[in-house]
Amino acid sequence: MKYRFIREHCQDYPVKAMCQALGVSDSGYYAWKRRPPSQRQLADEALAARIRQVHQASHRIYGSRRIRAELVEQGQPCGRKRVVRLMRQLGLSARRWPHRTVTTDSQHTAPVADNLLDRDFSAQTPTTKWVTDITGIWTAEGWLYLAVVLDLFCGAW
Question: Which pTM was predicted?
Answer without folding.
Answer: 0.52
